[in-house]
Design a protein that fits this description.
This protein starts with 7 loop residues before the first helix and ends with a helix. α1 runs antiparallel to α4 and α4 runs parallel beside α6. The longest helix has 35 residues. The radius of gyration is 18 Å and the shape is globular. It contains six helices and no strands. By secondary structure, the chain is mainly α. The chain has a single domain, classed as Methane Monooxygenase Hydroxylase, Chain G, domain 1, CATH 1.20.58.220.
């Protein structure tokens, strides 16, 4: 099933998971005080570029590796789902710069906290995958699913409040997109959890 030596695939998955944690924690820390939107967006782009380099590493290794530690499709799907999380948080940060959003409401930090928790669950799950502790991954996948449900509830509350309290159509459009992109990033985290569940089923 697995070789004893940690493969380049697992090493790179761990690097991607670490980068997700770094990016989401950066977002969570800096989004309450957006003094330099250009730097904020640029720094988030750096995290995304780092993750893209990991994707390139995995694809290159797949092309020259005959026997992989887990199913090739699972490697591709996990790579894509991890990359989607980083793409989601980077696209979100770029909207703050694009729309020149310097002040946030009370909902955005709550969303950011959910994403921080998701990122830590992802990192722990990926480490367990590297250690071949497949069944232990499930608790982290379940936790991510529960956090995504919280994000679903929160986006409904946000949008209800938005249409109740905001009359400026441009401001409404901006904030609605921010909320939806926050929720979409939580969805991408859930995609990681679902991919890990598939890997558990195939290899247990």
């Amino acid at each position: 099933m697995f070789s004893r030596k940690k493969s380049i695939f697992f090493q790179t998955f761990e690097e991607m998971a670490d980068t997700i944690v770094e990016a989401v924690e950066y977002f969570h820390k800096h989004v309450p005080e957006l003094d330099d939107l250009t730097k904020f967006a640029r720094d988030m782009k750096e995290f995304e570029s780092k993750c893209d380099r990991c994707v390139h590493t995995i694809l290159t290794e797949l092309n020259k590796t005959f026997i992989t530690p887990i199913d090739r499709d699972d490697i591709l799907n996990l790579t894509g789902s991890l990359d989607d999380v980083l793409d989601g948080i980077e696209a979100l940060a770029s909207r703050f710069e694009m729309y020149q959003i310097r002040q946030i409401d009370e909902y955005v930090p709550v969303f950011a906290e959910i994403l921080v928790k998701c990122s830590h669950e992802i990192r722990e799950a990926i480490r367990l995958l590297s250690e071949k502790k497949l069944l232990a991954i499930r608790q982290h996948a379940i936790a991510i699913n529960e956090l995504e449900n919280q994000a679903d509830d929160l986006v409904r509350e946000c949008i209800k409040s938005l249409f109740t309290n905001v009359t400026d159509p441009v401001e409404l459009m901006k904030r609605k997109e921010i909320y939806e992109r926050l929720e979409s990033t939580a969805d991408y985290c859930e995609d990681v959890a679902n991919t890990l569940e598939t890997i558990i089923m195939r290899n247990s």
